[in-house]
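Reproducibility note. Readers wishing to regenerate the assembly model reported in the main text can use the exact inputs given here. Chain order matters: entities are listed in the order in which they were concatenated for prediction.
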Amino acid sequence: QKEVEQNSGPLSVPEGAIASLNCTYSDRGSQSFFWYRQYSGKSPELIMSIYSNGDKEDGRFTAQLNKASQYVSLLIRDSQPSDSATYLCAVDDKIIFGKGTRLHILP
Amino acid sequence: GAVVSQHPSWVICKSGTSVKIECRSLDFQATTMFWYRQFPKQSLMLMATSNEGSKATYEQGVEKDKFLINHASLTLSTLTVTSAHPEDSSFYICSARAPGGYTDTQYFGPGTRLTVL
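Running the prediction on these inputs yields the following structure tokens for the assembly.
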């Protein structure tokens, strides 16, 4: 059974700093990887998708994928208080979610 | 962008009653919809995959006779929680995927919070 592992946090990061979120997955054959942000009481919203090894940047967000080591990470530059949320790592077509990392940006 | 709606956004019901939740793709046709459940402080758990015009595929441990899914059209899937009990209280979220799209075109609804008394 596919598994996706994340540190549940909370991860506290000062405003303006870089937040680094990590995720590992068990199925070496996984092809699609996603980061979602979920605010309390709300449904997830897609931040980034990544399919090939390396970095993918979108604004303040950078997703990094290393298939050999089976991990995917999300960097948030210039962290803002509005970035405080739970970040869910998800893998593959049916979207298997990790348990999420709670990120808290300290103003 | 693509919009997925859910109705109702919240519902409170008595134990033993059935509750129907609707998931609609408002501006695109979705051949595949997914139903998730999320308990407090836990991650989303996929319950079933709903394909238009065919039977839903349920994940292991999800009772298909308790959670009835109907995907009668390309814009509507329904989840009926039959004979609901307090342990069914949860946040139910649907998502819809546009036909021919990649997995990053999966759009989530706003969720339905079910409370069973």
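We highlight two features of this model. Chain A has no helices and eleven strands. Chain A touches chain B at residues 32, 34, 41-46, 49, 88, 92-100 (CB under 8 Å).
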